[in-house]
Design brief:
Domain Transcription factor TFIIB cyclin-like: 2-64, 69-111
CATH superfamily of the largest domain: Cyclin-like
Mean pLDDT: 80
Structural class: mainly alpha
CATH class of the largest domain: Mainly Alpha
Radius of gyration: 17 Å
Family: Belongs to the TFIIB family.
Order of helices and strands: HHHHHHHH
Protein name: Transcription initiation factor IIB
Keywords: Repeat, Transcription, Transcription regulation
CATH topology of the largest domain: Cyclin A, domain 1
Largest sheet: none
GO molecular function, one term: RNA polymerase II general transcription initiation factor activity
Length: 146
């Protein structure tokens, strides 16, 4: 998928003069989102030598030039992976997902990123249940994705 998007970008010559690696990284980001396994820009940066800023610029240009529509990223897209990285039980993941969806439905998190909504949901779950989850452990794990 990413290679097809990259070929389309090169053929369109819309990003002529831009760093090829940045274009490839942005294509990988788009392909991940289209395939239902979204990654953060920071995760894409970790596997490339391109800055988040450059990937973001190429991403915007590619979306515009190829007239591609991508669905909005939600916290539910990241929930299982992040909860797994934190070694949290499925019950906590399910509760945090419900909290995140409810917050979106109630328009409480308008303007927040999906990742921030995820963090808020986990924190709210922690408060509601008094489940002990070291804030340091969470912040270290979350920082990997910011």
């Amino acid at each position: 998928m990413a290679s097809k998007i990259f070929k389309d970008v090169l053929d369109s010559k819309a990003l002529k003069g831009k760093n090829n690696e940045a274009q490839a990284a942005a294509c990988l980001y788009i392909a991940c989102r289209k395939d239902g396994v979204p990654r953060t820009f920071k995760e894409i940066c970790a596997v490339s030598r391109v800055s988040k800023k450059e990937i973001g610029r190429c991403f915007k240009l590619i979306i515009k030039s190829l007239e591609t529509n991508l669905e909005q990223i939600t916290s539910a897209d990241f929930m299982s992976r992040f909860c797994g990285n934190l070694s949290l039980p499925n019950s906590i993941q399910a509760a945090a997902t419900r909290i995140a969806k409810r917050a979106v439905d109630m328009d409480l998190v308008a303007g927040y990123t999906a990742l921030l909504n995820f963090i808020i949901s986990l924190y709210n779950f922690k408060i509601i249940t008094n489940y002990f989850l070291g804030i340091l452990r969470v912040s270290i794990q979350i920082n990997k994705y910011l």
